[in-house]
Amino acid sequence: MSGFPDISIPLGNIADFVVNFLDKNLEPVFDFIFWMTSTTITTFDDILNFLPWWLLLVFIFALGYFFQNATSGLLYAFLIFLVGSFGLWEELMITVAIVLTAVIISLIIGIPIGIWMAMNRASSVVIRPILDAMQTMPSFVYLIPVIFFFPLGNVPAVFATIIYAVPPVIRLTELGIRNVDQEVVESAESFGSSRMQILTKVQLPQAVPTIMAGVNQTTMMALAMVVIASMVGAGGLGEQVLVAINRIDIALGFEAGISIVFLAIIIDRITSGIGNRFQRDKGDQ
Amino acid sequence: MSVKMKLENVSKIFGPKPKTAIPLVEQGKSKEDILAETGNTVGVYNASIDINEGELFVIMGLSGSGKSTLIRCLNLLNKPTTGSIVVDGEDVVQYKGEALKEYRQKKIAMVFQHFGLFSHRTVLGNVEYGLEIRGVSAEERQEIARQNLESVGLKGWEDKYPDELSGGMQQRVGLARALANDPDILLMDEPFSALDPLIRREMQLELLDLQERLQKTIVFITHDINEAFKIGDRVAVMKDGKVVQTGTPEEILEEPANDYISEFIKDIDRSKIIQAENIMIRPNALVSLKDGLKVAIQEMESNGLSSVYVTDRKRQLQGIVTIDDAIQGVKEKNSLEDVMIKDVATVKKEDYLEEIIPKAVESTYPIAVVGESNRLEGIILRVHVLSSLVAEDIDE
């Protein structure tokens, strides 16, 4: 008989207790967060729906033209046009609004944390394993507590997305700042700069290309969460994929799926184009 | 000359508990023992140096000798573990917060080995940085930055980015950036060692010109003894975190403090360090123009010379007369002025040996050393030119 001895550590119960405790005692806080987030999403969605469809295509073309070239711009506009032709225009807008909101909140949280980790080795040591956990923990696991705090819908989706998508921008912000040439930081210090001046005038500008790579990664990961997030009620393309799975509707599944892929391609190229632009700005002028 | 910066027993120890290493250092234990015993690394130990106002002070040592650590103590990029650094009557080691910022902003600036330029800023943006963080208005600081760029020969490059410039030009930007703050003290941490030899030589000369104009107090770090002796008014030699010897290049050359330094200066090109005044001697005999030929012959005979220099009453050099010409002249009833050779090789007191050697080769007479208004200061025997080229311990 070599079974595991009858010891039970109630880690699961503790997690359960903590979530319940937070839910009961911090309700106003969560209500506020809910209100903020849902307002942001709705505002984005409203703006996107208010704009005529062709203007959006022109805008996509302009982004592609500005950060890549004319051919890319045309291609991106065409891909978006295809998505519209699948009858998924409104879903696309909701998905874009959710992803944008999640990315913006991720950056607002992530960049300062990354800076703090670069400045303070102890915080880096503590936060790193948390980031590992956020990236490796199966997303379904934190979908459960998130729906405790917020009603089903787009808001819990955004928060589940943030948990998954925020680590890259934190890591790359830290890396970018740490990798700034020591002599360059020393030279700023030798002129009597304050810590804040060193950060804003030297370290952050020098780290911009790396931070932009982090922004790109974060955006891509946010997009990757679209389908899973729809399980807690997020609308948009992810929801269509979910519906297609339930109905075994191959045509809808494929159309919604390929639309997500198109969106991913466009967002990836444009954000990395922005990153390259920052790198080029200091060189070839 | 007043002391600008006085270092007393400055030590810098890196590691978990720097203070624990101090007693061990005082017991004279080696770097390795201290590292093994306490886990601390001794960067600089007990450096005491006086740096004078307006001098170019060179700290020389091989890598790991602690020279870069020491120079970083001067602007507190490294805070000394013990000791004091007194600048203008105040111990800067005690500076914190605002006082430290002000010290760095106004009194001291640094030039870095790999330039330490901000690649995201233009050349102008780099040079105005120090003024920018002091809160100088954009217009004023750009004006100052432009002037400083012009003085290092980079007019017209203001809007380029550092990576578009060659290494030599980048270091000029570094220099202009440091000078834009108009500091009293300029720290230069191996500023030319990342440059290729031709550019390095050019920059050394430019630095000397600049120093002539600006009269800053410069602390210059190098691992190259030739560079140290070429540009340094005084040189401190460091080894294993300690200052082994401080002195003028000539003093170190003539009296190396220990074998380590003797070994070092073996490699040195003495012809670039030794100046005419170091090897000239007072002439045994001199004749004045009014003395005439007979006196000249007598002087030469009584001193056993085959030639003698001729000066006027103010000791201005007129020429040289040989014994043969003098005797011939007396027979032909010529005057001293007729027979003396007027076209003689002369050097100045501060000329280096490398400039004297070609003249010594061509001339058959001793070389005259002249000062202001052609005043004869001394003469250099050709044999001394040769013997000064070899180190002391060889000719003994």
Helices and strands in order:
The complex is a heterodimer of chains A (285) and B (396).
Chain A: H1 11-25, H2 27-50, H3 53-67, H4 70-85, H5 89-119, H6 121-136, H7 139-149, H8 154-178, H9 182-190, H10 195-224, H11 226-229, H12 237-247, H13 250-281
Chain B: E1 3-14, H1 18-26, H2 31-38, E2 41-52, E3 56-60, H3 67-74, E4 82-87, E5 90-91, H4 97-107, E6 108-111, H5 123-127, H6 129-133, H7 138-151, H8 167-180, E7 185-189, H9 197-214, E8 217-222, H10 225-231, E9 234-239, E10 242-247, H11 249-254, H12 259-266, H13 276-279, E11 286-288, H14 292-303, E12 307-311, E13 317-322, H15 323-331, H16 336-339, E14 346-348, H17 353-362, E15 367-370, E16 376-380, H18 382-388, H19 392-395
Parallel strand pairs in B: 3-8, 3-9, 6-7, 7-8, 11-12, 14-15
Antiparallel strand pairs in B: 1-2, 1-4, 4-5, 9-10, 12-13, 15-16
Can you walk me through this structure?
The complex is a heterodimer of chains A (285) and B (396). Chain A is mostly helical and 285 residues long. Chain A has helices spanning 11-25, 27-50, 53-67, 70-85, 89-119, 121-136, 139-149, 154-178, 182-190, 195-224, 226-229, 237-247, 250-281. Chain B has 2 domains: 3-271, P-loop containing nucleotide triphosphate hydrolases (Rossmann fold, 3-Layer(aba) Sandwich); 277-388, CBS-domain (Roll), CATH 3.10.580.10. In chain B, helix 7 crosses helix 8 and helix 14 packs antiparallel against helix 15. The longest helix of chain B has 18 residues, at 197-214. The model of chain B has no long low-confidence stretch (mean pLDDT 86). The A-B interface holds A 181, 183-184, 186-194, 197, 201-202, 205-206, 208, 281-283, 285 and B 72, 75, 77, 100-106, 108-110, 112-121, 129-130, 132-134, 159, 161, 163-164, 174, 181, 187.
